[in-house]
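Exercise 7.
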Amino acid sequence: MRKHYDNEYRKKHYEAANDNDKIILNFLNINRTLHLLYEGKASQKRILIILSEEETITQQRLTERLGIMPGSASEILAKLEKSGLILRSENPDDRRTAIITLTEEGRTLAKEALEQRQNRHKEMLSCLSSEEQSGLLSLLEKLNADWEERYKGANADRHQGHHHRQHGECSGNCHECTHPCRRGKDNGKKHH
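Solution. The predicted structure, written as tokens, is:
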């Protein structure tokens, strides 16, 4: 019953909105759909795809690309290693981080994951003709370039993956972190 009410409310809200608001509402709906369909930040499939793009990668660099905490990456990598999909070896340049490579089985699964992703992308855009896709791409690139310039300060204070864009790398000691989102966590609020 609630889902029906939510759908009715959203439909009425959308119909009453002006064109600018409708565009933003469509972006929000598309964002929700992408979150449902896409691999998560640290899904095993996403990690395999990243590893297939690089011959070798350090665990630190992989963690940065994923935008997650080192502890989370270690947990997922341990599962992948136990499954025989990756190999971790000591980094001769920095003993604090490991070098990660795919095994043959890992390469096979990475290839399958990449094909699934490409097929999903093709399916997601199948309602548009080639010309419409080109037009949409052009508009999105224009909008994205403008928004990156116009709103570049909007993310400056955001505390993503425990890295401060404004203040440089996070020390990793969250108890000493002075970022507002960390203080919010200490007060029982959601930490992003």
